[in-house]
Amino acid sequence: MINKVVKDADEALRDMSDNAVLMLGGFGLSGIPENCISAILKKGVKGLTCISNNAGVDDFGIGLLLKTRQVKKMISSYVGENAEFERQLLSGELEVELIPQGTLAERVRAGGAGIPAFFTPAGYGTEVALGKETREFDGKMYLMERWLRADYSIVKAWKGDTAGNLVYRGTARNFNPMMAAAGKITVAEVEELVPLGELDPNNIHTPGIYVQRIFQGKDYEKRIEQRTITKI
After folding, report:
1. N or C: which terminus of the chain carries fewer CB neighbours within 10 A?
2. Where exactly are the transmembrane stretches of this chain (predicted)?
3. Which of 162, 188, 193, 192 is nearest to 177 (CA)?
């Protein structure tokens, strides 16, 4: 019987080394792999290229890795909540590639699907298009974007089974599923780990074939970036 369970994040990331390319799932602070980020922080690997929708906040998420200078390059679509990111960017300490959010999602999806390039109108005529091939289709200009792939895709799911099948909840579905498919090694941390056969096949979002290692996470903070309430 297939069993991809490892003890914890430390074991799951045991072979990660300096200069690795990582995809980190989640949207804002929703559905981020908190345990794995803590393990990377403790492991102390440096020169990392991090592909993520955003860069966390100063004291949480990828922001922790930026604070310790473990990240060499960020490939993201939104970084507005992280003052340390801004400081490193403006000082030239951090290499940054900002990508329109839809393009980022499609580049990751293309990496998982084995599609090396595609054409999109997003970014044509802006700095995003610098150095990229452009082409006209049906009277409209498009630019070519390359796939994104990673040495490690690190994702967080609500439930998973011992074979690596995953179910996400809510906003965590935005980037985790496509990133899970685009890594050479995909590590999944889950809130609830169940035996094979307990998940309804109709509700599985990431098939276990994409996941190499899975473990039961713990001590999730599940922070909220900006709490907005209605005043009555």
Report:
1. C
2. none
3. 188
CA distance 137 to 202: 38
Gap between the Cα atoms of 111 and 92, Å rounded: 29
- pLDDT tens-digit readout, 20-65: 999 999 888 888 999 999 999 999 999 999 999 988 888 888 999 9
For the stretch 108-121, pLDDT in tens is: 999 999 999 999 99
Dist CA 93 CA 182 (whole Å): 28
- Using CA atoms, how far apart are residues 23 and 112, in angstroms rounded to an integer? 12
All structural domains of the chain, each given as residue ranges with its CATH number in brackets, are 9-116+149-216 (3.40.1080.10)
Q: Is 202 helix (H, G, I), strand (E, B) or coil?
A: helix
**Stated pTM of the model:** 0.91
Sign of the CA dihedral 125, 73, 76, 173?
positive
Whether the CB-CB separation of 175 and 26 falls below 8 Å is answered with: yes
